[in-house]
Each structure stands twice: as structure tokens, then as C-alpha cells.
Hints:
The protein is of the alpha+beta class. It is built from two helices and four strands.
Amino acid sequence: MNSNSPNSSKSYFQRHIFFCLNEREGGQAACAQHSAHEAFEHCKSAVKAAGLAGPGQVRVNRAGCMDRCAGGPVAVVYPEAVWYSYVDKSDIDEIVESHLKRGQVVNRLLLPADVGR
């Protein structure tokens, strides 16, 4: 295999966490209604403070609608594809400490698989 092949080395980031920051008009359910932007910013700060930011570690990303509005606000961690619903900054801190730092899923915050739009 060529040493420049994408499969020949570690991923650029170990994990990505995506936060839905979608807004909807007309009172439709949307993550932005539940302080999703504040949670996103808090997660970015917490990841940096924990020394987890940067290549080979964690990337905190914005996302548009992820079609799981009924469970909002939502975030998803890849490559594990673990979906979370959170309430406050302490939930975000727990995701950072447990999942992003130690690789342990926070079961109490898991979004049920059948929750969609």
C-alpha cells in the first residue's frame, strides 16, 4: 500500500463532535431554540482547556440540521456515531471528560435511536 494512502495512517482527528445549530422559522422544533450555540462554544472551550484540541485529537464542529429535531438539542461524536441529547453545560463537560477524553460513552445522555424529526 502506498504510504500516502488515506488508510495508511491515523485519521487527522481522533474524534469529531458535531453540534446541530439549526434554526427554523414558524416555531418548528430546532436545536438553536435550546441554547445549542452556547453549548457548542462551551464544548470548544472545554476541549481546549483539557488539552484535547488539534490534530490527532478532537475537533468541535458546527452542523446544520441533522434531522433529529425531536431530541434536540443534539450532538454526535464520530467515528463512533454516538448521538447525544444534552441539557446544560455540565452535560457537555461530562461528554468532554468521559467520551472525548477517555473514550467512554455517556449512557445517560444517549439519544434514543428512534428519535427523528
